[in-house]
Amino acid sequence: MKKVELLSPAGNLEKLKIAIDYGADAVYGGVSHFSLRIRSGKEFDLESFKEGIDYAHARGRKVYVTINGFPFNSQLKLLKEHIATMASLQPDAFIVATPGVLKLAHQIAPHIPLHLSTQANVMNVLDAQVYYDMGARRIIAAREISLKDLGEIKKELPDLEIEVFVHGSMCFAYSGRCLISTLQSGRVPNRGSCANDCRFPYEMYAANPETGTLFKLVEDEGIGTYIMNSKDLNLASHIKEILDAGCIDSLKIEGRTKAPYYAAVTAKVYRRAIDDYYEGKFDGEVYQRELNTMQNRGFTDAYLINRPFEKNDTQNLDFSMMMGTHQVSGIVDEDGLFFECKYKTFPEDIMEILTPDESVLTEVDNEIGTIRKIEGQWTIAFKQLLAENGKVWDQVHSGNLNRFKLPAALPAFTFFRIPATEDMGTVKCDTPKEKSPSGLANA
Known about the structure:
The protein is of the alpha/beta class. The protein folds into 2 domains: 5-171 and 231-300, Aldolase class I (TIM Barrel, Alpha-Beta Barrel), CATH 3.20.20.70; 326-424, Beta Barrel (Elongation Factor Tu (Ef-tu), domain 3), CATH 2.40.30. The protein is 25% helix and 23% strand. The strands form 6 sheets. It has an 8-stranded parallel β-barrel, surrounded by 5 helices. Strands 18-19-20-17-25-14-15-24 form an 8-stranded antiparallel sheet, with no helix packed on it. The longest helix is centred in the middle third of the chain and has 20 residues, at 260-279. The chain starts with a strand and ends in a 16-residue tail after the last strand. Belongs to the peptidase U32 family. Keywords: Hydrolase, Protease. This is Collagenase. InterPro entries: Peptidase_U32 (IPR001539), RNA/ubiquinone_mod_enzymes (IPR051454).
């Protein structure tokens, strides 16, 4: 039986490795401004991206290159060179968004499979057929499409692979076709520089042009002013329903600009959900508990399972972001012998351990600290915070760039975390100065 693919975001080399180690079958990312995530593209250079491809291939995984921006005429020569350069790195597919780039990529690198970006807004059999005839071997379906409609496309085009988003940021606009950021800050979403304007609070006014009167519209208490802020997509509890439909080839997670912990948790949770499905022990509640450890905007199952007019819970009107149930405290380096502090760590603090796989850890108790299982959860506590340079610290906070010795070796990219407290709170974006450079990850 051919299993569905789990596809994770790779915003940089570290996150690429984390996604693969935590269970992704494939990852997607890019280099340069032809990717819809300029910031994540800048975190890769050709050398590190090639290293990522080699890392994936050595483990039997795949890498898809995002060339899904919307180029101007003045960029076409550079685009041709970029396609040829990316092809030389031997990735497993290109993700492109426009018919012209699709045709160009096929001409320059006919041996590289072509995946059609969600930006192309494929919603029906007719459009899917056109792109398939042009050489697309996979479509990344529009977020607004239904599972039933995807079934119809698969019935008509059985050789066309279908990929759907199952987790991550949702866009206020139709499949990311947004110009709000362009209007307000000159940052063009469909060229990779969305300023996330939809995540900020707005005041609404009514104006009378005849009298020059301006009225502020005061909303009901508790409703808030985040009128364009979409909740985050979360279909973990619907994986069985999606796979039962028999028409989906790849499940995609959004988030190239999100944190390494996000890359780890989403890959681990959806890997388990997929494996549980094929083993006949699917349990949606378990997956949600782990996903809720991360920061989020509230979750919605959006439109794949339900029609848009049936939904009234896709917006978060109260805040832009809230803490998850846990706070990341540290991450283990790739050598497995040291950790880096990501929040704050004190001696004797008991932190949960999140590892890439389910391998059994060994209990340890020595002068550095303890690793033990408490009520079914592996934990770590330090007796002393010994830096690699030999200095002992009485406490460590994020920003301290020292590496600290572990009581025993742990798998690379293991995370330490603690339960979040109320004072960690929610994030309300109150001024344009706080705008994120990341934008939403469309591919």
